[in-house]
Amino acid sequence: MPRHHTVHLHTHHTIAPVDRRVFGGFLEHMGRAVYGGVYEPESPHADADGWRSDVLEALRGLDMTAMRYPGGNFVSGYHWQDGVGPREARPRLRELAWNSVEPNAVGTDEFLALAARMGWEPMMAVNLGTGTPEEARNWVEYTNAATGTKYADLRAENGREKPWGVKLWCLGNEMDGHWQIGHVPAEEYGLRAQQTAKLIKDLDREAELVVCGSSMTFLPSYLEWDRTVLERVGDHADYLSLHSYVGNRNGDTLDFLACPGAIDRQIEAADATCRYVAARRRSPKRAYLSFDEWNVWYKTFSGEHMNGAGRFAPPLIEERYNLEDALVVAGFLHSFVRHADVVKIANLAQIVNVIAPILAQPDGLLLQSIYWPFVMFSRRRNGTALRTAVEGDRYDAVSYGSTSHVDASAILDGERLHVFVTNRDEGAAEVRIRVADTTIAACVDAELLAGPDPKTENDWDAPERVHAAGFEDVRIRDGEAVLSLPAWSFAAVSLRLG
Ligand code: AHR
């Protein structure tokens, strides 16, 4: 017998419009993400600019919005001027974040041209590890200023007369972490970030700035860091960054599937800190949230997977993903939609090879399980998030406490209602969708992600074991929709109201 659940909705119980930038990605100069990932001039799949056209095609399916670049830990030792100008004159450097070799064949202008071509909004991270506020400011002049001054003219000399117009800038990366090149206490980072913010905003009033918040909730500085930094940067802080990598470390699927509850709490604690600082400062300006690195990552979180051993494009953290990981990825997206009033940017980390939905080998590519929940949400992301109340059985997750077997989120787009539902249970679930103030007239389309067991994964011999398939088990009855979900599954359903 399936368990019965009801998702209660009301079209006036809105949260906020879902910001399109919540469906962003992250491309770091790390492992085989850039070289051997998106860029591989010697590949038979390469286009005239050296980009892998098969990889770009797969990325188009994800339809990502904001793209964060060039790191990550990498950025804290990166000097942008090494990556502009004639390729043959660019230095080949020892890169210390991942102990690799960086040839700088891809840099600012290549990335921004790719972003324009892919429809990505660039989100550039500046180096506040070994870099200075002035170096960051010069980069903004290079990308955004009209010609007539030094760095803008340098851009024109390098072949791009028109400014790129990059709006989103991250002031460093994970500066609270002891692993970060140039890690400093919160007070000192706050000072660096404040000085950088002022220079950037003096140069470009349209710039939007993301300050480093707590990257990991287990650090002793958790939230105190955020408070200190927000107080120091003040009204220049448009967004506070947060990161999360989760994993099934104790081999307990039910527990792992409950971790989106912790994502909800992480978001709410960061938001509370933003509100607290705004209130303390008596300022009408409050920072919103940029969840600019998130994913499942635990199977390759150690030793050789994280050390390039002085090589060029080493295979780092090439995590393999299964069905349960995909359900957790759906869980992150549920949480972002449920917090649409405060989470304005989010970036799946990363996009190719490095903890990625796409794996590329010289002769082909593989779409991993986590590719699909992103696509299923992305296809239905326009509109306003609705409050969801799920009625039904709960279980006690060892690490995360009381958790509903069914997780849900919803987006209202005019007369179209998109509902996203995860069944975390090992048995089937019957899920009724009820909209209190109107009726559901029809199911427009529906997709399902499922598999025989939570450990099912795609591999090179069987690339489609876990993928989004058409979902037929949606019945419209008495103005309600009823979904019959198999065990361990995720459904995205578009319904017509009225
Ligand atoms: O995404 C991989 C790494 O994880 C990033 O470089 C860093 O910011 C985070 O710790």
Descriptive report:
The protein has 498 residues and is an alpha/beta fold. The protein has ten helices and 27 strands. The protein has helices at residues 53-62, 108-118, 133-144, 150-157, 186-203, 224-233, 253-257, 260-280, 323-338, 371-378, and strands at 3-9, 14-17, 24-26, 66-69, 93-95, 100-102, 121-126, 168-171, 208-212, 239-246, 288-296, 311-312, 343-349, 358-361, 364-367, 384-386, 389-391, 394-397, 401-404, 406-413, 416-423, 429-435, 440-449, 469-470, 474-477, 480-485, 489-497. The mean pLDDT is 97.
Describe the structure in brief:
With 498 residues, the protein is α/β, with parallel strands linked by helices. The protein has helices spanning 53-62, 108-118, 133-144, 150-157, 186-203, 224-233, 253-257, 260-280, 323-338, 371-378, and strands spanning 3-9, 14-17, 24-26, 66-69, 93-95, 100-102, 121-126, 168-171, 208-212, 239-246, 288-296, 311-312, 343-349, 358-361, 364-367, 384-386, 389-391, 394-397, 401-404, 406-413, 416-423, 429-435, 440-449, 469-470, 474-477, 480-485, 489-497. The strands form 6 sheets. The chain has an 8-stranded parallel barrel with strand order 3-4-7-8-9-10-11-13, surrounded by 5 helices. A 7-stranded antiparallel sheet has the order 2-16-20-21-27-23-24, covered by helices on one side. The protein has a 5-stranded mixed sheet with strand order 17-1-22-26-25, with no helix packed on it.
**Backbone shape:** globular
Please report the number of helical segments.
10
Report the bound ligands by name, code or SMILES: alpha-L-arabinofuranose
State the major sheet: 8 strands, parallel, barrel
**Alpha-carbon Rg, integer:** 23 Å
Oligomer type: single chain
Strand content: 25-35%
- Number of extended strands: 27
Cα distance, first to last residue? 32 Å
Share of residues in helices: 10-25%
Unreliable stretches covering 5 or more consecutive residues? none
Going by helix content, strand content and strand pairing, the class is alpha/beta
Strand order of the largest sheet: 3-4-7-8-9-10-11-13
* Overall average pLDDT: 97
